[in-house]
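User: I'm putting together a small comparison set for a docking exercise, and I want a reference complex before I start. The sequence is below, and the ligand is KG4. Could you produce the 3D structure with the ligand included, as structure tokens?
Assistant: Of course. I'll restate your input first, then give the structure tokens for the complex.
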Amino acid sequence: MMRLLTIETTCDETAAAIVTDELQVLGAVVASQSELHERFHGVVPEIAARAHVERILPVIDEALRQAHLRLADIDVIAVANTPGLAGSLLVGVVAAKTLSLALGKPLVAVNHLHAHIYACRIAAGRDVFPCVGLIVSGGHTSLYHCRDACDFELLGGTIDDAAGEAFDKVANMLGLGFPGGPAVARAAEQGDPRAYRFPRSFLHDQDRLAFSFSGLKTAVRYAIAGPGKPDCERLELNERQVADLAASFQQAVVDCLVAKSLQALERTGLARLCVGGGVAANRVLRAALADALAGRGVELLIAPPELCTDNAVMGALAFERLRAGHIDSLDLDALPGLVRPRP
Ligand code: KG4
Ligand code: ZN
């Protein structure tokens, strides 16, 4: 049996996990930094990097403690080295390289987005490839043709904001907390998703597997206060308005994600959809996807919420790369690289 220590520091969660090559999770720790970024209504890269530095060793220690193991018992070190915030990524990459060198164990880098889809494989307990992969996170909203765990072809993605980013910004406009996704989802429970008519970009455009959420964001802003009016944050909204705005916004995002996933399935002819990333924790999205795919002969796999938001367990993707003969050297780089597909 092989034991993997995997490290995740791409954005604002410091995470480590110990996973076996049979994908059994022996230890898993996620230290969220939400409370550090909350008052800025978004992730501040410099603060994130500093917090990773402080937390990375205690987080690894705690994962080992949960697994009742010592560093010497670890056979492989994995780290997500792309994409993400440069300073954040560096902390994980340097920690992983140092451990690899000190322990004399192989180092394997994983792509954070691919790992988000691999979370579905871990949760399913069986092979899930080939599939269409929908990644909906704070930084990305993309559809992939996933041939196997290591071979992803980008089909399309957002031309501006990511879905999670839109949730975070709208939460801010509505005076809700950070991270915005769970806060908007909670407020939306009491709201009417048809109260406001918000735009759904590219919805019926079969030729473009693209998303755009910046116009939706602006539409929410104008529904609160028109152009030239004071900042939304300073306007008093009653609970009903907040709930209706949240529900209508959320429904617009969900409608786009569902429609484009269906188009990607049609285009590729694949019969399986795997969904990953923080926004995949959204209950309305999960239910809408299940609804849309019911009776279509398409299998839907969404990881449980704790494997949707950033975590290190999904870095077990490293075993697949290792099996494919892939080992990284100590000159491994952190690659922030945000790739924006053309519509
Ligand atoms: O995958 P993730 O943890 O980090 C990135 O790789 O970006 O995704 C974080 C994003 C945030 O924008 C957060 O607001 C959103 O996921 N999110 C949600 C929910 N839980 C987290 N969005 C909608 N509904 C949720 N329940
Ligand atoms: Zn993520």
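Confidence is low (pLDDT under 50) at residues 339-343. The pocket of KG4 (ligand 1) is lined by residues 11, 137-139, 164-165, 167-168, 179-182, 185, 277-279, 281-282, 309-310 (CB under 6 Å).
User: Thanks, that's exactly what I needed.
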